[in-house]
Amino acid sequence: MKFFIFLSAAAFFVSTILSAPLEGQCGPNEVFLHCGSACEPSCEVPVIEICTLQCILDICQCANGFVRGPFGCVRFEECPPIVYGK
């Protein structure tokens, strides 16, 4: 039983490490952060006023001046029009 618990924990940690992006693997207009924000600015919410202090480990997030769009990080002016009330 102890071996099964150890094996499960080891598999979890290995899969977590392998699924995280590595420095240099971020997309255009993204930066790699060891401790990123849980509240990344987006086309829908470009200005974050309230956010948790949660640290998202090893993540690619939009560089300063860019927001998360439907296909990556873009300047807010390049965001597609948002249709409300679908």
From TrEMBL:
CDD domains in UniProt: TIL
UniProt keyword terms in alphabetical order: Disulfide bond, Protease inhibitor, Serine protease inhibitor, Signal
Domain (TIL) ranges: 26-79
Signal peptide (from-to): 1-19
Stored Pfam families: TIL
Gene Ontology MF term list: serine-type endopeptidase inhibitor activity
InterPro entries: Ser_inhib-like_sf, SerProtInhib-TIL_Domain, TIL_dom
Superkingdom of origin: Eukaryota
PANTHER family linked to this entry: ACCESSORY GLAND PROTEIN ACP62F-RELATED, RIDDLE
Listed name of the protein: TIL domain-containing protein
